[in-house]
Amino acid sequence: MTFHVITGAGATAARTALLLAAEGERVRIVSRSGGGPDHPLVEKAAADAADADRLTGLLEGAATLFNCAAPPYHRWTQEFPALAAGLLTAAVRTGVPYVMLGNLYGYGLVEGPVHPGLPLRATGPKGRLRARIWEEAAASGARVTEVRAAQFYGAGAVSPFSLMVQPRVLAGALALVAQEPDLPHSYSSIGDTARTLVAASRDERAWGRAWHVPVVTPSLRELSARLARLAGAPAPRIEELTERDLALLALTDPLWAEFTEVLETPGLPFVSDFTETEKILGVTAAPVDEVLAELL
User: Fold this and answer.
1) Where on the tree of life does the source sit, at the highest rank (predicted)?
2) φ/ψ bin of 112: left (φ > 0), alpha (ψ from -120 to 50), beta (otherwise)
3) What's domain 3-148+190-213+273-283's architecture?
């Protein structure tokens, strides 16, 4: 029976594990907490993926290593390098094919659709970190691919939308956001992300390059309105935070300071192009209302 290792304790790790298990494949899900979904084919292991020696042992006999782990958002620059190094070292030692979950930060500010063929030209610390993690993996000799998601939405998502907008809309309250609410903006669901990870792991054409998770691209206001309609909530009230607002909020919680770097190009839509994922890997985006209904 095919056996896979997934690192991480979040929704994408769990969904990927359950997707593989539903197809009769064994999964070992590794996280510091030792948590994970309950399924007869899913084994839970408590370990730190930054510990290359421990992870090497846990990879024995595995067909694939999927990484869905990440440090707390405001601790990326301090903790991500060690995590990435541990994962890559274990992949190189064992020769296990390695599927990385990434995002779009490494491209930096882009005019026009963001596609996997663009150079990674980010200049901020988070963007350069994500770019460097991929560049080091690609140069390592490991059999590796990266699946890059846009902002998450839907059941289990942890993102600006799920934290700042979703609960306020459902409560009929004003939502303050750190993006332009009327511009088209790409979102990836957890389910589509898991399906792309699995599809990339099974296609010989996937290795050595990056793939974009399928997205939907409504404006934030439109996405909020669709959520409100499905939930029977009042029409959403959305207002954009100013730079001064963000600076003041950063004094209360370090998370707010992190948004400044990763805001998209002002005045332009943020659109992720997943044409190649759809054409080659055969994964497309789930309908918006289906994803939101699952959330509700």
Assistant:
1) Bacteria
2) left
3) 3-Layer(aba) Sandwich (3.40)
